[in-house]
Amino acid sequence: MTDTWLPSLLTATPQEGFELAITLSRRGVKYTQPDVATLKKLRPEYADSADGLTAASQVIALNFQTVAAANNYWRG
Amino acid sequence: MTDTWLPSLLTATPQEGFELAITLSRRGVKYTQPDVATLKKLRPEYADSADGLTAASQVIALNFQTVAAANNYWRG
Amino acid sequence: MTDTWLPSLLTATPQEGFELAITLSRRGVKYTQPDVATLKKLRPEYADSADGLTAASQVIALNFQTVAAANNYWRG
Amino acid sequence: MTDTWLPSLLTATPQEGFELAITLSRRGVKYTQPDVATLKKLRPEYADSADGLTAASQVIALNFQTVAAANNYWRG
Amino acid sequence: MTDTWLPSLLTATPQEGFELAITLSRRGVKYTQPDVATLKKLRPEYADSADGLTAASQVIALNFQTVAAANNYWRG
Amino acid sequence: MTDTWLPSLLTATPQEGFELAITLSRRGVKYTQPDVATLKKLRPEYADSADGLTAASQVIALNFQTVAAANNYWRG
Q: Which chain A positions have a beta carbon within 8 Å of E62's beta carbon?
């Protein structure tokens, strides 16, 4: 990918950090499967499945560990 | 989401930190599937399944690692 | 939950720390499914299944990482 | 369990640390299912299954992270 | 493998670090199954599967934790 | 096992560290199932399966986290 989508891991608040973790999780999917039509077709497979949603939340948790550490946990 | 639900990772006690980890785990699901009716429909799929509950507990464990580190493990 | 079940992450020994990690893992399940009768019914699903037991051990391992770090690995 | 099986996370060598990680992984299983006959019966389910063995190796990897950190990676 | 593919974990930007994490994830697969024809044949199994893509994103998240720590989170 | 296979976690380069992470992942399997004939028989189950390869890459990622930390990320 040639566009810049991740200039920094720093965010102003924990909540923005959590949302960055979601972006990272989606980018991990998109790098593996860049075809947008396929991604759209697969959405119900995980978004309407308890297992799929828990797995998505797990990836977000892993990426949030990274973003939170980068921000020194927004300790102030 | 425009509401503020995560102003800080700091909590007064380890137990509140664990409960924040649960909130983070649920938010990870909700960002992926915002439709409340779908989420309600899927609840039995994981809450009445041993595998689903173990997977949920795993996501909580990952988020608790983050919250506990943010709080310096409440070492006092 | 209103009772206090996690006043501290500190334990006297690594073994007590491991047992606290088990408590955390079970609490992760119980917060997700508070109904004790359902939990009892589901027990054979994981306790008599190799996959279920390995998954349980994985959650314990994650929580033990947190407890061990909190205790500076009981280096003394 | 009343016996002492984990007096310390410190080991003389990385290899002993890896073996301690295996012990921790097995203990996680045994605390969840203490019945030895059941554990014996389940053994082929994971020891003769590629997925089961990879999952077992994953739990060992998580516990080895803990043991290695406790020992400052045996940097000497 | 005799070629040099990983001279350093350092990258100029977080985004290059994320892309290095993808490389590490693919290399983990390739060391396990070096046969390129088999890998090509298996691609639809994960790239057209929601579970497969989430699992791929999870491995990337784990490797990104390593790369980000190596780079001190590009704090500058 | 009585042979010495892990004298140190230190390696000269990140790439050798990644290869050590692969060794650790395989050893985790081999300690659980020491029978070489069984291991050979199971190889197609994971090496010809997208899920199996992703899971293998995940264990390698976890062990690489440990090896990379041990080597201070080869920052030099």
A: 62
Q: What is the amino acid identity at position B56?
A: A
Partner-chain contact E66 F65, CB within 8 Å:
yes
Q: How far is CA D47 from CA C52, C58, C59, F41, in A?
A: 14, 17, 20, 12
Q: Does residue F1 have a pLDDT over 90?
A: no
Nearest residue to A65 via CA among C67, E72, B66? B66
Closest-CA distance of chain C to residue D1, Å: 9
Classify residue F76 as exposed, middle or buried by CB count within 10 Å of its CB (0-12, 13-18, 19+): exposed
What does the domain layout of chain F look like in residue ranges? 14-74
Within 8 A of B8 by CB-CB distance, chain A residues are 14, 74
CA gap F17, F73 in Å, rounded: 9
Name the amino acid, one letter, at E25: S
What is the interface pTM, i.e. ipTM, of the complex? Answer: 0.97
- Mean pLDDT, rounded, of chain F: 96
Q: Could you write out the DSSP letters of every residue in F22-55?
A: HHHHHHHHHHH---HHHHHHHHHHHHT-HHHHHH
Which residues make Cβ contacts (< 8 Å) with residue B48, sequence separation at least 6?
Answer: C33, C38, C42
